[in-house]
């Protein structure tokens, strides 16, 4: 009798312990921070806020966007790299924080591969090469072939704008320069807005920038689109041929976004995050948001996303070294 009572007590205790463990292991149990390494109001921030809203609905816990801009997105990335690995601090990282930064910053305070657990790639957005119809020097430039021919005729005399030295569109232009075998003079700005304004006014000859920010001026006739840097044409500009179509097969430059947790985050938490973010990215609302930005919803696996990051680090480190680009 005593033995049976002891066994019943032990079973009850084990059952209670299991219930407690399950309760403690349920994720998420409190608000989750989604760190955006850029200022509020930009395209990255817009995507993050839509994701956070959808994840809040799906999980029943608030996903809260926290903007930590600065140093080419490395401040926000470093914050997450050093955060507790419990799934309650995540990063919406980009090509800047996890690829180009490796070549640009000799003393990067985090390792993009070792200090993070990749969750999924969100989207990848192409650039568009734009000039101005108001620019008398480019009056006869109607295609990428025309632009390259003019640049070769006057090496180093054409200028290109970027949103800053070491920015993704600066390095994208350097990649195109190398592919086309041309020399251009770099004019860095503090952001895409003023850079595009000066290109539209004819003060600078050309620029590569994401489709979304250039689109209003293209539609208004202030900018002329010469080429898209994805392998397929953009649904937002279906009449604009890709760079690859125009004599540069395989040329592709995409600005991608992805989700990361700190390295060491429990596998069960990563699995839950991957499952939930994948479902959100495949929803009609999220797909519509991303397509309006100029990119598809990707929802890759952690292994696929990790492989992309490794290849992108190698690619952009080479571009930085060849161009001599330095961060602002």
UniProtKB/TrEMBL annotation:
Keyword tags:
Receptor, Signal
Q: What is this protein called?
A: Tripartite tricarboxylate transporter family receptor
- Family annotation (Pfam families): TctC
The record ties this protein, via SUPFAM superfamilies, to: Periplasmic binding protein-like II
Q: Which organism is it from?
A: Variovorax paradoxus
- Any signal peptide, and if so, which residues? 1-23
The cross-references to PANTHER family, in alphabetical order and at most eight, read: BLR1237 PROTEIN, TRICARBOXYLATE-BINDING PROTEIN
Give the UniProt family note.
Belongs to the UPF0065 (bug) family.
Q: The organism sits in which domain of life?
A: Bacteria
Give me the segments passing through the membrane: none
